[in-house]
Design brief:
Layout (H helix, E strand, L loop, with lengths): L1 H8 L18 H10 L5 H8 L3 H11 L8 H63 L1
Helix pairs in contact: 3-4
Amino acid sequence: MRKAAKKKATKKKVVKKKTTARAKAWTAADIAFLKKMYRTTPTKQIARQLRRTLASVQAKARSLGLKKPVVRKAAKKKVAKKAAKRKTVRKVAKKKPAKKVAKKKVAKKKPAKKVAKKKATKKKVATKKKVARKKK
């Protein structure tokens, strides 16, 4: 009887495997977008816009026969220089409006100061001329 009892206790438990999420099906719009943007846009950016993984976008592009253009080292340097110029132009463009506003406020106050300075300098010049005349 003991043997029969042991057999019942050692029965294997059936463990159900967790189902993994299935891949999202590629729609015609997704494929058209991928074909249009793949050559010019970074793959990471395309993946974000399509809400897919980088690997899935790369795999689909490979299955469609899409390829990125080969970029030579000299071309990379030119592109990097142009990008740097664009960034500096953008930074300057963003800063200019703030400076213009500040200049306008200062410009309104300056005329009053300039007039006072001009009067003071005229007085100094006049006194210098008087002193020069007296010395002669």
